Amino acid sequence: MKNIILTIALCLMAVGISAQKSIYKHRVLDADGQEVALKSYKGKVLLIINSATQCGFTPQYAALQALYEKYRDRGLEILDFPCNQFGGQAPGTNEEIHQFCTTTYNISFRQFDKIEVNGPNASPLFTFLKKQQGFKGFGNGQKAQGMDRMLKNRDADYAQSSDIKWNFTKFVVDRKGRVVARFEPTQDISEVETVIQTLIR
């Protein structure tokens, strides 16, 4: 009997640990202020981003929309969270942001309430994402070097924290709600697609 109880306890612990490592415990607000339980996305591959409408990386919306159109029928969802913490580059209301994105880039993936991703008022979802996948560098190329120089001028130790560094940071979540990859805005969308392809099968 003791062995059975121990086995059950271990199974419950395993389930609890698994739940803690999934995004499904989180709830967020959509662009209309309606609460959304992320468990409603169970079984989907997710790409979660923090975005801005007046950033040098804003044209990435076109590539994100193309990615969404290519894989949505196979289970990809993109969750877009505007954030005004980086250079004040996401001004405006949720409605204004959505109008800009649909008019300029014809996006059709879901947009959510504007949030903060760092600091004491950071979204619990993004706090969780950062804990699961920390910052590993901007990659290679001129844009990567430029971001590194800019941030080092502000904080020589910026790379030591898991904080979001800029707009259009991307997190990939598998069909079980596990955060499997993080991409910085300087990394090519083809790198993101490669990971999505391995999960979407």
- The computed structural class is alpha/beta
Name the poorly predicted regions.
1-19
Round the Cα radius of gyration to an integer and report it.
18 Å
Number of strands: 7
Helix content: 25-40%
The tally of helices reads 6
Average pLDDT for all residues? 91
**For the largest beta sheet, what order do the strands appear in spatially?**
5-4-3-6-7
How far the N terminus sits from the C terminus, by CA atoms, comes to 42 Å
The biggest beta sheet is recorded as: 5 strands, mixed
Strand content: 15-25%
Elements, N to C (H/E): HEEEHEHEHHEEH
Bulk shape: globular
Tell me briefly what this model is.
With 201 residues, the chain is an alpha/beta fold.
Structural write-up:
- The protein has 201 residues and is α/β, with parallel strands linked by helices.
- The protein has six helices and seven strands.
- A five-stranded mixed sheet has the order 5-4-3-6-7.
- The radius of gyration is 18 Å and the shape is globular.
- 33% of the residues are buried.
- The model is unreliable at 1-19 (pLDDT under 50).
SSE diagram, text form:
Blueprint: H1 2-20, E1 27-29, E2 35-37, E3 45-51, H2 60-71, E4 76-82, H3 94-105, E5 110-111, H4 124-132, H5 142-154, E6 170-173, E7 179-183, H6 189-200
Parallel strand pairs: 3-4, 4-5
Antiparallel strand pairs: 1-2, 3-6, 6-7
